[in-house]
């Protein structure tokens, strides 16, 4: 063996030190994989970057000591832990001939309750379809209101979602010109819904295409493809149980790249401590 060490140009001690480092590296990598699998029991299809942030806590941070985000991504890729997008289509809204103007295109957003965005989406069940309505505060990406229904009437979709959002914000009168941005679906043009917006001095804004409401499209994909579908939700009763759980995880546990990898709730707490003139700006623009 000594002659072999001499041929490859290393010492016996150096070889055993290399084997020891290699063993420690592989053991640490397996611990990282175990933690990733643990987090994905809840956040089933969370990508590498938010996982990296989520794992930087008191319990798991030593595992990532000296491991950057790129190396972490390589570990996931080499172990088959990447996620692939899922795409399905089913029509959920029927646009009206009339439409409010788009008030958010190129708008600079730097505060909460400046723009709320909303849309309806479907969810396929064993025995039919369910419909989900969500409302987000665009600046913080926080889900403020949602509704679950088996039909697309205004009374079962946009109205209860709006009421939940108003209750969560606990503001009686939005005199700062809050904009409610949605698609042109009839549920957002319904008289009762518009009366509710009018009562709170909320301005209506509408997108002509899905490309003018991109944040809701991404949110819908996250809700269904990253949580509800991987959780195996296939009945209306299961959906009633799991939907609040998803909203909780999204608002309070899932890091967002656009929020400097903070959760929506943590971001809201963070910006409240920053003067308005120093807050980061969000420029609303459609996808082209």
Q: From N to C, what is the helix and strand string?
A: HHHHEEEEHEHEHHHE
Outline, from the CA principal axes? globular
Low-confidence stretches: 88-92
Number of strands: 7
Tell me the strand order in the biggest sheet: 4-3-2-5-6
Radius of gyration: 24 Å
How would you classify the helix and strand content by structural class?
A: alpha/beta
Strand content: 5-15%
> Helical amount among residues, as a percent range?
25-40%
* Through-space gap between termini: 65 Å
Mean pLDDT: 81
Instruction: Specify the number of helices.
Output: 9
How many strands, which pairing sense, and closed or not: the largest β-sheet? Answer: 5 strands, mixed
Q: What are the salient characteristics of this protein?
A:
alpha/beta; 9 helices; 288 residues
Describe the structure.
By secondary structure, this protein is an alpha/beta fold. The protein is about 40% helix and about 15% strand. It is built from nine helices and seven strands. It has a five-stranded mixed β-sheet with strand order 4-3-2-5-6, with helices on both faces. The protein has a two-stranded antiparallel ribbon with strand order 1-7. α6 links the parallel β5 (about 180) and β6 (about 205). It is globular, with a radius of gyration of 24 Å. The protein starts with a helix and ends in a 5-residue tail after the last strand.
